Amino acid sequence: MIEVEDLKKHYGPVRALDGLNLNVEPGTVFGFLGPNGAGKTTTIRILTGLAHPTAGRAWVAGAAVGAAAGRAVAHRIGHLPEEPAFYPWMTPREFLDHVGRVFGLSASERAARTKELLDLVGLAEASKRRIGGFSRGMRQRLGLAQALVNRPEVLFLDEPVSALDPVGRKEVLELVGKLRGQCTVLMSTHILADVERVCDTIGIIARGKMVTEAKQEDLIARYAVPAFEVESVNGFGERINGWAETLRKMSWVKTVTVADQTARIIVNDVETAQRELLASAVQAGLVLTRYEMVKPSLEDVFLRLVGEGGPA
Amino acid sequence: MRIFFVALRKELIEQWRSYRLLIAAVILVIFGLLSPLTAKYTPQLMRLLPSGDEIAKLIPPPTAMDAVSQYVKNLSQFGVILALLMTMGVVAQEKDKGTAAMMLAKPMPRGVFLAAKFVALGLTFAASIAIAGAAGYYYTLLLFEALDVGRWLVLNALMLLFVLVYVALTLFCSTVTKSQVGAGGLAFGLLLVLAIPGSLPKVGEYLPGQLINWGAALMAGKADAYWPALWISLGLIVAALVGAWAVFAKQEL
């Protein structure tokens, strides 16, 4: 549904995009993850026709981006910029109606869609207030509503929850999750928890290049670190340090780090560790509050990949 | 065409809600009314000054033509000032605030976005000049005599065209820059570029300023026509709009 091939965007000597490749399957929620300045917004601006690539090609909903088909693409997409801007003299109802007119909806369609969207984003009560007096969170909700007016096939969301409080963030992410299967969503963010919560597939971008692109579970499995964490009750600091020394001599242990009452053990041989680690802790006289095989978080993967700065 | 009317509708509502239409109409109507009043009562006001009687004797009795020349001078000056002030932010501000990006990611062609702004401003000035013209005509009739309606309409049409030249040029400036102050400065520079050669006798005949002289001459019963100035003014409007569109089509938002 979205395909990007060797996309480049240079601003003088700055390479905002440096040969980006991307492929988003129809009906999925794609998390476009990267640190600030990685090229996420530039990519979205090119895909929505607001910026022009220096080189490379891209297709959205089967149509080439930036070509004469630009307007045809515009009919089929929705776009929420990072800081949505509105005409301050309009009310949300008037703005959504105006957007509906731009998309050629009939008067009855516009009225129904406006009401439906205002309810959906929780702005029904503020529908007659001037947008000029809205908070940033309200603007972001309205931004999401306007991006959905035309029931887009492809929805581009640039940091859609960055201005929202925790409740608003949860509601909007749930809403994005509900769009799965109805439309293809490309959601850029640098907040890993949001991606973990809602995205099927993840693309990590750094320095204008796609570092990796995979389904969330595949990504985590691929970068899984064979690690265990063992936490003892307070007052066992000396014993846990002594146990760590013992573990370091074991052939199946790679590294051991201790912080407060918790030991993190990275192993070479998971099966042996599963068999012997817990017994060893009991033998060392530790009273445990937690013992687990650590699953890597998306954050671990992200930091590792972005830190490396190149494809894994 | 449908999308043009959608954009135009929004622009016209904005003209109304932001009081731009009201401000333009009120300012131009005030000068439309004041022009015949000033022409009529200036000699009487002069008499109030020390040795004013002596000065007043030197001033010939006011005529309807004095009212017309006041009207032409006032409306052309304030029309241009309003054209600059009301147009300088229309594109630059939308680019700066992000509303242009918001709307142009939708099926709104950039040419339509610009054209709607020009037409909305054109209609605002047309309405304002029409009201000012009606007010000026009525007061001239009350204080002096009836003017030739046909010629008065032509004078106001020429005045509107003159103002639209500066609307189009300022719209171009607003498109090429990203701040309304920059657009205003650039437009003022262009105004000076047109004004300086406009004061030269041979060159001035071909420039938009001649439209004003043409209208005034028409009211004075002269048959002088300055068609080249009209064609060049229309050409400047078209060139400014096409230039703005060409630049805007390539701009990144």
Write down the oligomeric state: heterodimer
**pLDDT below 50 for ≥5 consecutive residues: which ranges of chain A?**
none
In angstroms, what is the radius of gyration of chain A? 24 Å
Order of helices and strands of chain B: HHHHHHHHHHHH
List keywords for this structure.
heterodimer; A: alpha/beta; 4-stranded antiparallel sheet; 14 strands; B: 253 residues; mainly alpha; elongated
Describe the protein:
The complex is a heterodimer of chains A (312) and B (253). Chain A has eleven helices and 14 strands. In chain A, the strands form three sheets. A six-stranded mixed β-sheet of chain A has the order 6-7-8-3-9-10, sandwiched between helices. In chain A, strands 2-1-4-5 form a four-stranded antiparallel β-sheet, covered by helices on one side. Chain A has a four-stranded antiparallel β-sheet with strand order 12-13-11-14, covered by helices on one side. The longest helix of chain A is centred in the middle third of the chain and has 14 residues. Chain A is of the alpha/beta class. Helices cover 38% and strands 28% of the residues of chain A. The model of chain A has no long low-confidence stretch (mean pLDDT 88). Chain B is mostly helical and 253 residues long. In chain B, 82% of the residues lie in helices and 0% in strands. In chain B, helix 4 packs antiparallel against helix 7 and helix 4 runs parallel beside helix 8. The mean pLDDT of chain B is 90. Chains A and B meet through helix 2 and helix 3 of A and helix 1 and helix 6 of B.
